[in-house]
Amino acid sequence: MMFFITASIYFGEKRLKYSNVPYYARGVPLLLVIFAIISLAFYGLSSSWWFSAL
User: For the residues of 1-54, what is the DSSP string, one character each?
Assistant: First the structure.
């Protein structure tokens, strides 16, 4: 999973080539957004499992 995210960021850097934005300013928000989406998806699945079990 982390390898896929890193590879996607690497190839995205090769395509986009922002010249005025530093690397950390591009990579960190993307990782935070991906982590937030995954955590929210898992939270929604777990809550739905709990409600279906009840």
Answer: -HHHHHHHHHHHHHHH--SSS-HHHHHHHHHHHHHHHHHHHHHHHHHHHHHHH-
pLDDT tens-digit profile of 4-37? 667 666 666 655 555 566 666 667 777 888 888 8
Judged against a pLDDT cut of 60, whether residue 2 lies above it is answered with: yes
Backbone angles phi, psi at 36, to 5 degrees: -65, -40
In whole angstroms, give the CA distance from residue 40 to residue 44: 6
pTM, two decimals, is 0.40
Contact present, 26 and 13 (Cβ < 8 Å): yes
DSSP 8-state secondary structure symbol assigned to residue 6: H
